[in-house]
Design a protein that fits this description.
The chain has 6 helices and 4 strands, in the order ααββββαααα. It has about 220 residues and is an alpha+beta fold. It folds into 2 domains: about 100 residues; about 90 residues, no CATH class. Helix 3 packs antiparallel against helix 4 and helix 5 runs antiparallel to helix 6. It is elongated. The N and C termini lie far apart (about 55 Å). Keywords: Membrane, Transmembrane, Transmembrane helix.
């Protein structure tokens, strides 16, 4: 039996496959979707969506639901940077997952910025107009380091999902930019230089904020 004869006997099936492929091609235009040809068993992931991505791969907390059989999201390198590949047995599901993962990641970044703003507003509210007492350089450095430690503690308490979903005592390696700023903090503290320490702490805080804003640390 030829392929033409088979198509004549099963017009609905052929029409459905072409409709599925057409839908996938149109739906993926905004996200850079690459869809494989349908025809494999339902439990085999044959459709995938590839889109630019920032930060680490999605955590379990960023998935809209528990991944079904054949569904996955893997991070890789593309020509322009990181690329997230979302796979599912059917094109509409792959596209929907990609949209949901992107939305939840972007929403998490906005929530992170909001949490930081809330913490800063509380700090400002506690400030008093009285001048600071005179301190030795070493004492002033100790005060700056204490303030930085409290900042990190308060921010950690306010972290929204998916950052707050990281397991306790998760080992995270900061990027080189953050490590370099932290080394500057250490050198300034060792030299008991309050001005240099203050500048180094501000630079380290900005580098850390940029690191978190790029996605869940990995």
């Amino acid at each position: 039996m030829s392929a033409t004869d088979d198509a004549r006997k099963h017009p609905a099936r052929s029409s459905y496959r072409w409709t599925t492929l057409a839908f996938a091609a149109l739906a993926g235009a905004a996200l850079g979707v690459i869809v494989a040809v349908a025809g494999a068993p339902s439990h085999v992931a044959m459709f995938e969506v590839r889109m630019p991505w920032d930060g680490a791969a999605p955590l379990a907390a960023e998935w809209p639901s528990t991944p079904r059989e054949g569904e996955s999201a893997t991070l890789g390198n593309g020509e322009g940077g990181l690329v997230l590949t979302v796979r599912a047995p059917r094109a509409p599901r792959a596209h929907a997952l990609a949209v949901q993962l992107r939305t939840r990641r972007e929403g998490g970044v906005a929530a992170l910025a909001g949490a930081g703003a809330d913490v800063r507003s509380r700090w400002v509210a506690r400030l008093t107009p009285e001048p600071l007492p005179a301190m030795t350089p070493a004492a002033e450095c100790a005060a700056w380091l204490t303030a930085a430690a409290r900042r990190d503690r308060d921010l950690a308490r306010e972290l929204p999902a998916p950052w707050s979903a990281l397991p306790a005592r998760t080992r995270v390696t900061p990027p080189v930019a953050v490590l370099e700023r932290l080394q500057e903090v250490e050198l300034a503290a060792a030299a008991a230089d309050p001005a240099a320490l203050r500048a180094a702490l501000v630079a380290a805080a900005r580098a850390s904020d940029d690191w978190f804003a790029a996605g869940v640390p990995s």
